[in-house]
Every structure is written in C-alpha cells, then in structure tokens.
Design a protein that fits this description.
This protein has 14 helices and 22 strands. With about 450 residues, it is of the alpha+beta class. The chain has 3 domains: about 1-215, 3-Layer(aba) Sandwich (Rossmann fold); about 245-330, Uridine Diphospho-n-acetylenolpyruvylglucosamine Reductase, domain 3, CATH 3.30.465; about 340-460, Phenylalanyl-trna Synthetase, Chain B, domain 3 (Phenylalanyl-tRNA Synthetase, Chain B, domain 3, 3-Layer(bba) Sandwich), CATH 3.50.40. The strands form 5 sheets. A 6-stranded mixed sheet has the order 3-2-1-4-6-5, sandwiched between helices. Strands 7-8-11-10-9 form a 5-stranded antiparallel sheet. Strands 12-16-19-20-21 form a 5-stranded antiparallel sheet, with no helix packed on it. Strand 17 (about 390-395) and strand 18 form a beta hairpin. Helix 2 (about 30-45) packs across helix 7, helix 6 crosses helix 8 (about 200-215) and helix 11 (about 265-280) packs across helix 12 (about 290-300). The longest helix is centred in the middle third of the chain and has 30 residues, at about 215-245. It is elongated, with a radius of gyration of 33 Å.
Length: about 450
Amino acid sequence: MVINQLKDFIKQNNIIRNSVVVIGVSGGPDSMALAHSFLSIREDYGFSIVIAHVDHMFRGQESLDDLEYVKNWCRMNNIQFEGKSINVNQYIEETGLSSQLAARECRYRFFDEMMRKYQANYLALGHHGEDQVETILMRLVRGSSSIGYAGIREKRPYSTGEIIRPFLDLRKQDLTTYCQKQGIVPRKDPSNDKDVYTRNRFRHHILPFIFEENPTAQKRFQQFSRQQLEDELYLMELTEEKLNTVIKNKQKQAVTIDVKQFLNVPISLQRRCIQLILEYVYLYLPEGLTQGHLNSILTLLHNEKTTWEQHLPEGLFVTRSYNECTFTFEQLNVKYYTISINEPGVYELPNGFSIKVELNNQCLEPKNDMFICSVKDVSFPLIVRNRKNGDRMSLKGMNGSKKLKDIFIDEKMKQSLRDEWPIITDSQNNILWVPFVKKSAFERNFSTDESLIAIQVVSKSF
C-alpha cells in the first residue's frame, strides 16, 4: 500500500525523474516509512536521496540517540546523511515563541540549508492523513485564513524546489504496519503521548470518534483539502485583479486603499483583499495574527465611523481616515510646537510649513493662502501652535463659534494631519486662522487708514 501510494503520488504530481530529494527524517514510524519507500524505488526513478535530521535537544541523550539511530540507518543503506543538533530552548528564550513553533522554525531553516547545499528539487516529509485531519480541525476551531482551512498542502514551492507530502491519503497505522513488515524498529517520541499539546488532545480525544464513524475519513478530509485549495487559488486570482483597483498607494510594508472602491468588491473577495494586504506588509504573517483581527478590520471598514485606528501584532497600525485606510508599521510622531511672532518675517514650522508675516497699510485682496486682520483687533505676540483640546473659533461670516474638532471633521481632514496642522492665534488665544481650512471673523472689511497684518503660507512640505 505504501509503495503504491508513493508511486501514485509521483505520477499524479508530475514528480521529476532523476531529482535530488531531501527527506526529513525524525526516526519515527512516519518518516522512516517515507525514507524506506523512497529507498525502495530510488533506482526506478533515478532519485538522489539525502536524509536530513534535526536534534531539537529537548530530550537530552534520548534525542541524541534519535540522531544516531537515523545516522546508522543511512550508513547501512548507503544514503547521504545530514544531521544537526539545535538548542531550541535557547531559541525560545531569544524569540518568545512556543516550543512547537520554535522547533518548526529551526527545523525548516536547516531543511532550507540542505536544499540549497544539494540544489535539491524536493523536500519530502512524512505527514499522513491523520495529521491532515488534526490540522484542519484545529484551524477550524482556532480560526484561520481561507487558504489555511485547506490544511496541509501536499505540494508547494519551497527553497530551491518544492515540499512534497506523499502520504496524506494514508493513516498512521498504514505506515506503522509497513515498518513492521520491513523490519524497521522506529524511535518513539514520548512527547506525542502528552495532552499538554493542542494537537495531541485532538489526536487522542477527537480523532478516535471520527475514525470510528468512518475508518477512511482521512480520504474525505484530503479530498476537502484539495477542493478547498483549488477554489481558494482561483478566488485569489480574482482578488488580485480587484485589489489593483482598490490600492491607492503601495510602498515597502505600507499600503493605502480606497475605502469606497473596497466596499464595492464582493464580500468574499474583501476578506481575501485584507489577507493579501497583510501578507504584503508583514512579509511573514506573525503567529499572533488571527482570523479575529481580519474580521475586526472588515467590520470597521463597513462601520459608519469614518476615522479609527486598529493595532495589530508586531506594531502594525491600520488607520482609517474618511475614504482612505492605511496599513503601516509607522505611527505618526506628532511634532509639537509653539512659535511666538513679535515682528514681520518668515517663520519655519517643524512640520514643513513656512509662515510669512507682513505689516501693510494698503488694502489687500483676500486669498485662500493669506489671512488679513487689523493690528488694533488682535493682541501680540501672535502664536502659531498645534491644536488643543477644546479649541473653538469664530468663523468669518457666521455668528457664534465652532469647535475646531468639528471643523476638521466637516472638512474631512485626514486624522494623521490634524494634530500637526498649524493654528494661528493671538496672545489671548483667539484663533485667527487655520490655513487652507477656515478663516475667523477677525478678517473683515477694513477702512483705508487701518494698519493691517498679512499672514501668508509661503510653502508647505506635507
């Protein structure tokens, strides 16, 4: 059964003859069945085989014995062996990762080194059908991406070639029986018996019920996995096409989208748009990022609230400001300033504005980039500063006053600009002008003999 399964997999997946195949072997029954079955057909397909083993140093002498076991088996069968002991506990201390995730990262880093060393075409791994059932169930319970629900992929790009998993249609007992018939006495990892790991709890308590109901359930799960993956890859193609119409700005690890265009995309593709954006800005999705984060962003984008900020793992900020939503690791560092103006001149602001102040006795034509007031109406010095809580101003042509916060909202000014936008007041804290936004009632009709102050925005580098 095992040999036939391997041959069927090779045929169905167009595995190239005369390839270099690195096989990840722990010494357990799954990987030993994989190694032996590849050895059995090696000459028929012209494969060059390299066995790669990682000692995670979790179990002291016992795990070192695993390494020696695999090494001796390779020596007896004239197979190239590559082994390495990695202090995974030290890596856990350095990264804060869980033991299983840290071990996986160390293991795959070593596999990548071996793939590159031998310019291998394939990395073969011994995952079987029960591993697939566990993975799909765990992701359904914990939450995952749409493509994540497909579980373990039987073939995917990796390093210099591809990862292949030929045994996802088989049960573990198929591999154990194969080892017994071939006289292989595999190593046993006692950690597989402990219920402290989530996967083991699924394995010990959920899978027995499933296989009691259907002894070949792994085939149904594998069929689901293939169909889910096929559907998802097609939907992702559609998503990429739609995403091109949604993105307004794309830089390294920063993306800004047009919210209105995004909401016109079908809802099933909206989720995938966010998934692709997160994959782009993160480069590698962090362990702490969950489906809940993605759903939260989607909910907020559909919310009537037009300004909000969402914090995601590893310092990613998702910020909406009216019709724009930005994904970036850069949080705006507000430059706070207060500048006193006692005499005419040009005043440089730390946020890129330049303010020019002149005294003038001539009647000036009002302009959008200039504010004019009478010397006798204001008290000196004039002040240029950031906004403050509770700021209000009397607007030109209107009775009463209005909150500055409401003015910014009405003008749909980006949230990221509001805190640094210059506010020009007199010494009594009367707001005279918010450049390019609103003028106060201090700009009025002047008599010909009044001394005037002209305040102009010369340039800004926003």
